[in-house]
Amino acid sequence: MASLGELERAVMDLLWAGQEAATANTLRDLLARDSEAGGGRAGHQGKDLAVTTVLTVLSRLEKKGLVERERGTRPHRYQAVSSREDHTAELMHEVLGSAPDREAVLARFIGSVTESEAATLRKLLGEL
Amino acid sequence: MFWTSYFLAVLALVLAWPVPVLLSRAAWPARAPFTAMVLWQAIALAGGLSMIGAMLIYGLEPIGDNLIAGLRALAGMVFLNQPTTALGFWHLFALSAAALLSAHLVFTLLLTYVKIERQRRRHRELLALLASPSSDGPGTVVINHDSPVAYCLPGGARSVTVLSDGLMARLEPAELRAVLIHENAHLSQRHDLLLWAFAAWRQALPWFPTTRYAQLAVNSLIEMLADDVALRSESKATLIKAIALVAGGQAPSVSAARPAGGEGSVTGGFSTTGSFSATGGADSPRTTASRVSRLLSPEPPLKPAYRAMVLAASALLLAAPTALLIVPGLLG
């Protein structure tokens, strides 16, 4: 059985790749197909994957604010809240921004530099 | 009792303003970052201790010859309804202030921890979905982004070092190793604990010069410590080149890294950057500049005798207020 973390990732990959909202059933079928196409590496969990497991994964993702569901239809259809690129941008914004309280969250190799300092460093690089 | 509270008040004052200002201007911390780090911690702890201690001793003066006797008498008033007539207004004021300040410091420390952990957890969740494992070792992941970025997200066993595609594309293998060693040094030396404590210290007393200077100094000292670890296995030129490549490639893309959503989110992101760079622009560049100049024109490490002196001074700084608070009670 793949871990919930791996399944979350696989489900997000599908939702990010797909154009429209998908039901848990559709997602289960896609996951099963992917794991068969992936050969032995992913094991047989695709076939055994229950729709309830996919629903668990989806509700975890919903709680994390990554997935939203259309409640108008039955069964519910799920889609990603924002694109993979937007999430990456959100992460990088957190990393590159320099709010004082963020400085304690993570340690960057280089803190933010001013344009003039970056220019000085580029010049230095030319001399090295 | 009176001279004790007077002495502690003077110590608190000295540690709140002139000492951190002088230390932040001194050049020697770059030559002995570890020693300087110990001193900053001693200043912060001794400062807090003498601040609270001064108020406590002053407030307890009428009801006890020393701290322990005074606290015992106070406990009698609070819990056993003994008469409080001995305490004047200013004594009660000082005692309340001491209690409030202590609670404020502890509460801010905890609150800062919760905030930091919440942000880290969210960050880790997104990384689990967005980043792919790197071949550079366990706990290292790569994220798909063009600007050269490297950072580590502390979290005990779940600590992770993140590299961007842009970084991997720009750096030679040796430079990449230097970056990884640098980031791993942050994790193995538990710099996150220092960042947390000094962030909380500043958050709790933002109007005290000491907390701002201390946080800036600590931010810069941990980078130097991590650089020193990287220098043990990679050459100076490699590290400088890595710093210059990352810093040089990063600056223009800071504004390009805003969320590429609608118009609204772009302007929203931009205005926040504006306010961030007010602090970031003043604080961080000095760190990078001092790191590079430290590598370019290295000065010899501080002599062991001087380092021992600073360490002894740090110990004394902690021991003096502690002894003043506790020893009279033990003797009496």
TrEMBL record, chain A:
Q: Name one GO molecular function term.
A: DNA binding
Does the keyword section mention Transmembrane helix? no
Report if keyword Transcription is assigned: yes
- Residue ranges crossing the lipid bilayer per the database entry: none
For biological process, the GO terms are: negative regulation of DNA-templated transcription
What Pfam families does UniProt report for this protein, alphabetically?
A: Penicillinase_R
- Which InterPro entries does its entry note? BlaI_family, WH-like_DNA-bd_sf, WH_DNA-bd_sf
Q: Which domain of life is it from?
A: Bacteria
Keyword set, alphabetical order:
DNA-binding, Transcription, Transcription regulation
Q: Which family does it belong to?
A: Belongs to the BlaI transcriptional regulatory family.
Descriptive protein name: Predicted transcriptional regulator
Source organism per entry reads: Arthrobacter cupressi
From TrEMBL, chain B:
Q: Does the keyword Ribosomal protein apply?
A: no
Q: Where in this chain does the record put each Peptidase M48 domain?
A: 118-197
Which GO BP terms, alphabetically? proteolysis
Q: Which GO terms describe its molecular function?
A: metal ion binding; metalloendopeptidase activity
Cofactor descriptive note? Binds 1 zinc ion per subunit.
Q: Where are the transmembrane segments?
A: 39-60, 89-114, 308-331
Region listing for Disordered, in residue ranges: 275-296
CDD domains referenced in this protein's UniProt entry, alphabetically: M56_BlaR1_MecR1_like
Q: Which UniProt keywords apply?
A: Hydrolase, Membrane, Metal-binding, Metalloprotease, Protease, Transmembrane, Transmembrane helix, Zinc
Q: Keyword rRNA-binding, does the record have it?
A: no
List, separated by semicolons, the cofactors it needs.
Zn(2+)
What InterPro entries does the record point to? Beta-lactam_resp_regulator, Peptidase_M48
Protein family membership: Belongs to the peptidase M48 family.
Q: What is this protein called?
A: Peptidase family M48
